[in-house]
Structure prediction request, 450 residues.
Amino acid sequence: MINFEALFKISYGLYIVSSGSSEYGNGFISNTVFQVTSDPPRFASCCNKDNHTAGVIRSSGHFSVSVLHCDTAAGIIGTFGYKSGKDINKMEGLDLKYGETGVPVVLNEAIAFLECRVVETYDVGTHLMFIGELVHADVLDDGKEPLTYLHYRQVKKGVAPKNAPTYVDKSKLVKKKVEEEFARYECAACGYIYDEEKEGKRFEDLPDDWVCPVCGSEKDDFYKL
Amino acid sequence: MINFEALFKISYGLYIVSSGSSEYGNGFISNTVFQVTSDPPRFASCCNKDNHTAGVIRSSGHFSVSVLHCDTAAGIIGTFGYKSGKDINKMEGLDLKYGETGVPVVLNEAIAFLECRVVETYDVGTHLMFIGELVHADVLDDGKEPLTYLHYRQVKKGVAPKNAPTYVDKSKLVKKKVEEEFARYECAACGYIYDEEKEGKRFEDLPDDWVCPVCGSEKDDFYKL
Prediction:
């Protein structure tokens, strides 16, 4: 028996994992970045095989990790988490640096970054796991706390996109009783749920220029549950 | 250039990873437990090759993960994090259950648990990475927050043991200026540092029965830095 609520007790940070070069770069929001050995320091990162960045990392042989802070704006999470590099240039207009490996490092909303050289790639099913040896790392802002997946879920009401290792199909979760006089609206792009009861405001009373706090989609992109 | 302070910005939880059977079980404190695929749900866990539990997981083909809560007592972290199953029976006197896979699940201080069947084992250098398919999971206590490595370091003043993937040799860190009139004492067993300035009390003024808050070692096991 699997109670999928138990999976939310595992702790993760939230990162932008990027790759490519100064000619072309792409990245995605990852919650699975973690150190696997201390000597030499090596990091693992999981990437869905369907993610555009998976191919970019394979080609370049390097990736960077930007550690997001806890007050990260929804916009950047929307761009890197819910949109594809097949459709847009995610790096456009961002504050980037090209580190020792030549891959882009996203500096916006980042408090630290790592650069890794891929030494191994494991096929773990729907995802590839890249094992990277640490080449370069630095702190950008020591005053802010890192964004955790728990904070993103509880405070920012964010949900994992379908390609994330930690995506949970909502139908598998134990349903909690919802007061009938309040409705809930789901964002078709990212799955964020606007809960009238929790927010204390009817969805229809929100201004027309209101946007999804997670991915920036417009009010019309929501449907009633 | 690697600034090792940047590595502390990566977020982790803290877990007891156990294996074995009702005849004999062993476990260790792990901060690298993370989901690698959502369908089917698979989890990875890194274990130092020198850890006694590595051999126990290899023999049994299963492991459990107990998610610790943020007020976890120092004693259980000392036993599972800084002592070896080669020397003591870590499971003695604990509240255990034997789940669907037959491995012991430590219930003390746990708010949730997972049981996994090992489907792949990767050699990532000093550590083995076990990939386990989720067989069983449940929430034990929904009222407490999970313990994070950040909380363990900042609030509980804990440090990673030498066998942890995230162990950082202190000589690699940028030295911060310490006021000369205060001294610091390090626990020889676990590396915990008693800082007189932060604690507001001289080490020599601590009672004789004072023990290391991280691993339970006696006052005599500390040396002045």
